[in-house]
Amino acid sequence: RGNQAEKEIPFAKPTSLTRVFAVASGKGGVGKSSVTVNLAAAMAERGHKVGVVDADIYGHSVPRMLGVSASPTKVEDMIMPPTAHDLKVISVGMFTQGNQPVVWRGPMLHRALQQFLADVFWGDLDILLMDLPPGTGDIAISVAQLVPNAEILVVTTPQQAAAEVAERAGAISAQTHQRVAGVIENMSYYIAPGSDERTYLFGEGGGQLVADGLTKALGAEVPLLGQVPIDIRLREASDEGTPFVLGDPEAAASQTLRQVADSL
Ligand code: ADP
After folding, report:
1. Residue of the nearest CA to atom 22 in ligand 1?
2. Is residue 4 situated within a structural domain?
3. Which terminus of the chain is more exposed, N or C, with fewer CB under 10 A?
4. H or E segment at 168?
5. Is residue 6 exposed (0-12), middle (13-18) or buried (19+ Cβ within 10 Å)?
6. Domain containing 133 — which CATH number?
7. pLDDT of 83-99, one tens digit each?
8. Number of folded domains that form the chain
9. Is 74 inside a domain boundary?
10. Is 60's pLDDT higher than 90?
11. Res. 163 pLDDT band, cuts 50 70 90
12. pTM for this structure?
């Protein structure tokens, strides 16, 4: 344990061929984890080798969303991550007892994240997606330190209030000099079955607002990558452990998520 700090993280090397995306949001419940698992599944379906790190200590919902119940195994000094839907998955939840809340503090979190990146046998990944806790907390700084070349994806709802906090979460990358790959607006609208009318349950414009705000703050173009509609079946699919893009590829939400994955 003592030499954790010296252990090198393969993805952090300038020569690393793995693209790392850290998925961030201002607040919880906006669909950050749902977006993460669906982007990951869509990328894996295209033939990419994809890993997912669930670093959302407060939420850690990724294993459930991917239907992973297996625990990681240990081979020599490496941690072998369970796989599901062609994805390698590691989660804080796999290292806690039962459903206990995690009360780790900054330095412990940093070390956990470091271990996820350095001690887990990921193999040669094309893409690593990291589901961060909501907000602008310590973990965003840790990611910047541990994987300086990680790119940020910001998830927000269309709501004005959510957009403001999401923008703040994204703006942290100005200090850490990380690239913000884009903004994904989730829960953008709802279309009732048998209708083609969009209902904007959470208002409109949040995603564009965040994209514009970040473009201005960072002095670099931050695009709005997609607007994912609300779909009850998406929630059901994630409760059942199947990414919606795989279970219902024709749905509008799946198509948008797939387009976002292809655009990265
Ligand atoms: P976060 O990671 O931001 O806390 P989650 O991904 O856990 O958010 O999503 C919160 C809840 O909303 C989950 O029950 C999820 O299934 C549901 N959800 C997320 N996005 C959508 C969507 N586009 N349509 C319907 N339900 C959604």
Report:
1. 230
2. no
3. N
4. helix 160-176
5. exposed
6. 3.40.50.300
7. 999 999 999 888 876 66
8. 1
9. yes
10. no
11. confident
12. 0.94
